[in-house]
């Protein structure tokens, strides 16, 4: 009887520890923000051709180049707001990008 209670407590304890480490890793990834900063020296738009079976489709790609040489692909909404030659700070969290003011 006592052995059964100890084994049940051990299972709950181990489950709790595993759940804690899983949750803490999730929270860390969720709040990880990468910051890109510098003067924008170049903005360019390219078209990628996608072959989907029997049809061809084009998809635009918007990129900016910082003064330190870092090239970054940005969504269209961010691309519109960026002015060439100005100092810009872009924050990226997972797939979302915002311009810091």
Explain what the structure shows.
Strand 1 (34-52) and strand 2 (55-66) form a beta hairpin. With 101 residues, this protein is an alpha+beta fold. It has helices at 2-30, 76-81, and strands spanning 34-52, 55-66, 71-74, 87-93, 96-100. It has a 5-stranded antiparallel β-sheet with strand order 3-2-1-4-5. The mean pLDDT is 87. It is elongated. This is DUF3139 domain-containing protein.
Brief overview:
This protein is an alpha+beta fold. The chain has helices at 2-30, 76-81, and strands at 34-52, 55-66, 71-74, 87-93, 96-100. Helix content is 35%, strand content 47%.
Give the spatial strand order of the biggest sheet.
3-2-1-4-5
Radius of gyration, CA atoms, in whole angstroms:
24 Å
Structural class: alpha+beta
Helix content: 25-40%
Taking the alpha carbons of the first and last residues, their distance comes to 64 Å
Element pattern in H and E: HEEEHEE
The profile of the biggest β sheet is: 5 strands, antiparallel
How much β-strand is present in the residues? over 45%
Supply the number of helical segments: 2
Q: Count the strands?
A: 5
Q: Segments where pLDDT lies below 50 for 5+ residues? A: none
Q: What's the rounded overall pLDDT mean?
A: 87
The shape, in one word, is elongated
Protein name: DUF3139 domain-containing protein
Organism: Fictibacillus barbaricus
Can you lay out the helices and strands and say which pair or pack?
Layout: H1 2-30, E1 34-52, E2 55-66, E3 71-74, H2 76-81, E4 87-93, E5 96-100
Antiparallel strand pairs: 1-2, 1-4, 2-3, 4-5
């Amino acid at each position: 009887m006592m052995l059964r209670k100890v084994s049940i407590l051990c299972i709950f304890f181990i489950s709790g520890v595993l759940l804690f480490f899983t949750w803490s890793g999730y929270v860390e990834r969720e709040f990880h923000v990468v910051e890109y900063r510098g003067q924008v020296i170049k903005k360019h738009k390219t078209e990628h051709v996608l072959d989907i079976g029997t049809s061809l489709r084009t998809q635009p790609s918007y990129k900016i180049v910082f003064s330190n040489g870092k090239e970054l692909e940005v969504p269209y909404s961010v691309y519109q707001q960026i002015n060439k030659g100005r100092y810009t700070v872009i924050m990226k969290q997972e797939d979302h990008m915002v311009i810091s003011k």
